[in-house]
Amino acid sequence: MAERHGRATGSGRAVAEGSTDLHPRKLDLLNLTLVDVNGGLRPYLNVFLLVHRDWSATTVGLVTTVAGLIGVALQAPLGAAVDAVHDKRLAIVAALVFASLGAAVIAIWPYFWPVLVAFTLLTAAGSSFTPTVAGLTLGIFPKSRLARRMGRNSAWYRGGNVAIAVLIALVGYGFPDRAVFFLVPALSFLAAAAVLSIPRDIVGQEMAEAVKPEGGGSASAWRVLVGSRPLLVFAGAIFLFQLANGPLASLVGQKISLAHPNWSAAITSTTIIAAQVVMLPMAVLVGRFADGWGRKPIILFAFAMLPVRALLYTVSDEPAWLFAVQTLEGVSTGLYSAIKPLILADVMDDKSRYNLASGAVATVQGIAIALSNVLAGGVVDWSGFGAAFLVSAVIGTAAAILITRMPEPSERRASG
Questions:
Q1: What is the pLDDT of residue 299?
Q2: Residue 291: which residues within 8 A CB-CB, separation 6 or more?
Q3: What is the pTM of this model?
Q4: What is the pLDDT of residues 166-189, one digit of tens each?
Q5: pLDDT tens, residue by residue, 324-348
């Protein structure tokens, strides 16, 4: 065991100290090819079902909500299974396979029950990508380089989302509407090739030695969550943030696509691209300044931008205005996505129980995203898009207020 630990530590140090740039480049490629299920594929799925399959907004919201909740319930046992896998690369490959199967089923059988099962697979698989990559990063890079590497991960991930959104627009315009979903297997193949190109000993050992899995599955995760006040406040604020933010991109895409159904894929992709282009520099900003500015000012600003954006959607129905406002998602979501793993690492003392904390927060986030769709769909059917935007603004304001109660994570770690 001691010899194995020495090899793993030495390999990780070689990467961290820059003696080779092999592994950072492969992490870049992995982040570039991962599909953002919630931010990229879910809005197009909602538009596809509403505009091209004539589903009601309530039914669309119901399917995505139920699928999301089932996916959340599966996260704890799936996380325990991943902890038990020695070769972590295989866990990512398995998730990519399930995501590909889910997307293919939606394309071939776009009916209620097949879509429900398929989107459950997609949600469960997609939610595991970012935490797994963050966990691998924690095991490879030292604290002094962690913020920059996490920012770089997020920047490449956002850059990939922009490229994927462009592909969705091109495929959606030139081919039948359901062809978009076949992009997922193609991209999953590239992502699998990227992760398998990372040497097995680097991936397999650093997390096994640095992060000690705990028994109890989801019960352990909830004990960690309830036992840490900063983590509990952070999770509560994330729940409100995602409950408000989850449906906004889909609502904008649906609103414009109903007026221009033949351009639904291009319109949905444009709304995604508008946000993702802004998210990329936000990720770089977090990587460069998170240590100097602190975590809390960044997350507070990210949360405060959400209700502003939701209110601006109600000012005009013009597509140009809605697209312009959608770029503000890049500020709020871009900052939040890049700073979240750093806050979790600080609160949980970097690697100790990081996976448990990440799993608990991911569960809370998944519940919020799932509920947000049925809530927004019901409000739209009941009182229109404007009312749905106002509800999101109120919930987003509550999230920003709650995050002010969280202690500065980096100061807490330093004082500890």
A1: 94
A2: 147, 410
A3: 0.68
A4: 887 788 677 767 888 898 998 899
A5: 888 888 899 889 988 998 888 888 7
Residue 54: CB partners within 8 Å, gap ≥ 6? Answer: none
> Is 311:398 a contact under the CB 8 Å cutoff?
no
Quote the crossing angle between the two packed helices 229-245 and 218-227, to the nearest 10°.
110
Q: Which domain holds residue 285?
A: 2-415
User: Domain containing 21 — which CATH number?
Assistant: 1.20.1250.20
Task: Decide if 147 contacts 286 (C-beta within 8 A).
Answer: yes
Number of structural domains in the chain? 1
The answer to whether 369 and 395 have CB atoms below 8 angstroms apart is no
The first and second tokens of residue 376, run together, are 């927004």
Residues 191-242 pLDDT 10s: 999 888 877 665 444 444 444 444 444 555 566 667 778 888 999 999 999 9
Residues 390 and 247: their CA atoms lie apart, in Å, by 12
* Band (291; pLDDT cuts 50, 70, 90): confident
Q: Are 304 and 400 in contact (CB under 8 A)?
A: yes
DSSP assignment of 297-362 equals HHHHHHHHHHHHHHHHTTT---HHHHHHHHTHHHHHHHHHHHHHHHHHHHHTTTTTTHHHHHHHHH
Rg (CA), the chain: 20
Q: 73-78: which pairs have CB atoms within 8 A and are 24 or more residues apart?
A: 74/120, 74/124, 75/124, 75/127, 75/128, 75/218, 75/359, 75/362, 75/363, 75/366, 76/217, 76/218, 76/221, 76/359, 76/363, 77/217, 77/218, 78/124, 78/128
